[in-house]
Specification:
Layout (H helix, E strand, L loop, with lengths): L12 H13 L3 H13 L4 H17 L1 H8 L2 H11 L10 H17 L4 H12 L26 H4 L1 H12 L3 H51 L4 H27 L4 H5 L1
């Protein structure tokens, strides 16, 4: 109640953090908290609803996968939809509250693209004309932690950036949250570029390996008998393809010369 007290115009970050800590400490916390927050978000008191939305977003940032799973269920999403729908509370919910709920749901479609139910719920609101256009997310809205990462992710290996990010996320200052948002975006981009390089290297090596294997088979047949015209053309095509891939293989090798993990793959 203190974290969503409507008599206090500003967010009580100490109480909000205690609420998140309790969610993480209680085994039933991730399942109970969304239900409690849904009730507060539907409050006829605008300030209480807005505070509850702030608590919800803070929990998304701090309470992990189990909490994410709960908010991605239709049971919870329907409670948010009721705030917007004129069939339920949309007729008396304030524009400010409805705008925040729309912003929250849209942000989740961006940050949790794998959650089909969130996307479907938001698209339903658009089809029904309840949401006219996608909101523009403010700069100080921080991204939730990214999805489970592979081993040796930049989030784990770049200790300096990870420490800086942890410090920024604990701050209540708007400029620090903006800096955290920019840092997360840059780290995700770097992670994606790293993954793309690994994927390209694996695909290239796989293609060369298959081509060489096929060439060996054809040459083995050639030792026993004359190759047919089509086999000769296939052999020539495979050879030309391998020649074209040769520079790429050298470049990939140079990119991974100091990368033990990449060389291991």
């Amino acid at each position: 109640d203190k974290a969503t007290d409507p008599s206090i115009p500003e967010e009580n970050w100490e109480c909000i953090q205690r609420f998140c800590d309790q969610v993480n400490a209680d085994i039933e916390g991730p399942s109970l908290a969304p239900r409690l927050l849904a009730h507060k978000i539907q409050s006829p008191q605008e300030m209480e609803a807005l505070h509850a939305l702030t608590v919800l977003e803070t929990c998304v940032n701090n309470c992990g996968e189990r909490f994410h799973n709960e908010i991605a269920k239709f049971r919870f999403l329907n409670e948010l939809i009721k705030v917007l729908s004129p069939k339920y509370y949309g007729t008396w919910s304030s524009d400010k509250v409805k705008s925040r709920v729309t912003e929250v749901m849209f942000s989740w479609t961006v940050w949790f693209p794998q959650e089909v139910k969130i996307r479907d719920a938001y698209q339903m609101l658009k089809k029904q004309g309840i949401v006219k256009e996608d909101p523009k997310l403010p700069e100080d809205k921080i991204l939730p932690p990214p999805s489970p990462r592979p081993q040796n992710s930049i989030f784990d290996t770049d200790e300096e950036k990870s420490k800086l990010l942890a410090r920024l996320l604990k701050s209540n200052h708007s400029e620090d949250l903006q800096a955290a948002n920019r840092l997360i975006k840059s780290m995700i981009k770097e992670e994606q570029e790293k993954s793309a390089k690994v994927s390209r290297r694996v695909n290239t090596i796989s293609e060369v390996s298959e081509n060489v294997k096929r060439m060996d088979e054809l040459l083995e047949n050639y030792k026993r008998q004359e190759l047919s015209k089509s086999d000769q053309e296939t052999l020539q095509t495979l050879f030309q393809r391998c020649e074209k891939l040769r520079p790429l293989l050298f470049r990939l090798a140079s990119e991974t010369v100091d990368d033990d993990e990449a060389l291991g793959k």
